[in-house]
Write a structure and sequence with these properties.
Blueprint lengths: L43 H12 L4 H13 L1 H15 L4 E3 L5 H14 L3 H9 L2 H4 L2 E10 L2 E10 L4 E3 L7 E3 L9 E2 L5 E4 L13 H26 L3 E5 L6 H13 L13 E5 L7 H21 L11 H39 L7 E3 L8 H11 L9 H8 L18 H10 L7 H14 L1 H18 L3 H14 L3 H21 L1
Antiparallel strand pairs: 1-10, 2-3, 2-7, 4-5, 5-6, 8-9
Length: 511
């Protein structure tokens, strides 16, 4: 049995691959119920402490805050979901290590692996690291018919892990009874994605850290807006009574004003009246709070999506399309990074366990190709195809256009044009062509011969000069190989190409 190591050089113990290492517990350090709330009543002072503690290695409260931000704010949840789904919706492809039969077989096995229904969910769970700085999924392996395959990918709460104190880069698993520095992750058991959104330690790279201040300010703005609406959203009910009103009359009036808040109906003596006075629009309150909330939403959109056009109601379709190109860059970068994680933590273990250690491995590629400009491609084909003999495969053109290769006996659209040489031969046989191919070829040969010295001088003269400098044939041979790389043959190539093109044309006419 071959000895295997992971990418960190740790020995693989196959008996541990089917064990669950990061399972949650009802109590203890990996309890999913010990949460509380950070977002509720969040103040600038507490937020500063949460972010500072995370940067210093204690990220539990920061990770909980990042979770609550997606749960409590519809805009933040929307833009984060948009960024995640943009990558999760890309169909991954598998690139074999080479055209060797064995490499093709391994690539087919990896392709079958990523076509399993659990794989898209794995990508979504790994992209949870965009907000928090990292995400870890445990692989539950199973052995069937001597083949190791993942039975399940289990997302693990990021609070179950901690970074090492030396570098802040290596993720470790928290264990009951162990120190708060955790224990090393078992090899071939975890897929750990750390999005490289900025340089620095992973815990400081999460989008939640970037958006936290704007999120908190928006929460304050919404709370103030609700308080403003509660006070100034309804008109003031003012009851007036005359100078001769008794205490009983005042009580009746007070009760009538109070009942208007719910019943909107009351009866009063003729000597009393109720007025509705509109609340004063002080300090621009009705416009201030929504404008502030919208401004903060735009800042969050910039941080998550890289732009605001696709989330603003007032943006034109043209502007949104331009900014979608920016999102394509972000999407492909996210896909490239999560693809690298999958290749390192899933593809390599899968291949090593089933096929042994390889010199090169197949690669999972997660990238959305830019759509083909069909009109531009059609224009190019319309110009170059009639020239003939340029080596374009019909299969390649169909793939670029998105059409499958036709099956045998299928009905094809369009007509097959008559070849130009056949038409030319028919014209010549009818005597309507006035071209004398022999005379034209002789003239073409004469034109080339008239200029041969001028054309070949840039190529011949350096060779002659080299021969004059060299003392023996070996030195000349060594110098000749270097001379060929710097030789000026542009004029010769152009002359030869032009003559060949003319000769081909005359040949087509003659048939």
């Amino acid at each position: 049995m071959p000895i295997l190591y992971d990418h960190r050089g740790k020995l693989i113990v196959k008996s541990e691959l089917r064990q669950e290492h990061a399972a949650p517990s009802l109590t203890g350090i990996r309890s999913v119920w010990d949460s509380g709330s950070i977002a509720q009543g969040l103040t600038p002072q507490r937020l500063a402490r949460v972010l500072r503690d995370a940067a210093e290695g204690d990220a539990r409260e920061y990770l909980l805050l990042a979770e609550e931000m997606e749960e409590r704010d519809m805009h933040y949840a929307s833009v984060m979901g948009t960024r995640k789904r943009a990558v999760a919706g890309i169909d991954p492809t598998v690139i074999p290590a080479s055209d060797d039969k064995k490499d093709i077989e391994i690539a087919d096995a990896v392709r079958a692996l990523i076509e399993e229904p659990e794989f898209p969910g794995l990508i979504t769970d790994l992209l949870d690291g965009l907000g928090k700085g990292y995400s870890a999924c445990e692989i539950m392996w199973e052995l069937s018919d001597s083949k190791w395959t993942p039975r399940e990918y289990i997302w693990r709460d990021p609070r179950f892990f901690v970074f090492d104190r030396d570098s802040g880069q290596k993720l470790r698993l928290l264990e009951d009874g162990a120190t708060f520095e955790g224990v090393p992750l078992p090899p071939f058991k975890f897929i750990v994605h750390m999005p490289h959104l900025k340089s620095g330690i992973p815990i400081r790279s999460g989008i939640a850290r970037l958006a936290a201040v704007s999120w908190m300010c928006k929460a304050y703005s919404l709370a103030d807006w609700m308080a403003f609406a509660e006070v100034f959203g309804m008109p003031l009910r003012l009851g007036r009574y005359g100078q001769d009103a008794t205490d009983r009359d005042k009580d009746i009036l007070k009760m009538a004003v109070a009942n208007l808040g719910t019943d909107a109906a009351a009866i009063l003596p003729d000597s009393m009246r109720i007025e509705f006075i509109e609340a004063a629009k002080s300090a621009g309150g009705p416009e201030l709070f929504p404008r502030l909330a919208e401004f903060l939403d735009r800042q969050i959109s910039k941080g998550v999506l890289g732009q605001t056009m696709t989330t603003d109601d007032g943006s034109s379709q043209a502007q949104a399309n331009v900014h979608n190109d920016v999102r394509l860059d972000i999407k492909n970068d996210d896909g490239r990074q999560v693809g690298a994680t999958v290749n390192r933590d899933l593809v390599k273990p899968f291949v090593d366990l089933n096929y042994g250690v390889q010199a090169r491995y197949p690669r999972v590629k997660i990238k959305e190709e830019e759509p083909e400009d069909i009109k531009a491609l059609a224009d190019v084909l319309a110009k170059v195809v009639p020239l003939g003999n340029i080596g374009i495969e019909a299969r390649a053109v169909r793939e670029r256009l998105g059409f499958p290769n036709p099956t045998e006996g299928a009905e094809l659209i369009g007509t097959v044009p008559t070849s130009a040489p056949a038409i030319n031969r028919a014209i010549n046989r009818a005597g309507t062509s006035r071209i004398d191919p022999d005379a034209e070829l002789n003239q073409l040969a004469q034109e080339v011969m008239d200029e041969w010295e001028e054309i070949l001088d840039p190529m011949v003269n350096p060779v002659q000069a080299l021969a004059d400098r060299c003392a023996d044939f070996e030195e000349f041979q060594r110098g000749l190989s270097d001379l060929v790389l710097s030789m000026d043959d542009e004029r010769f190539i152009q002359s030869l190409a032009a003559a060949s093109f003319k000769a081909r044309g005359l040949g087509d006419v003659e048939g």
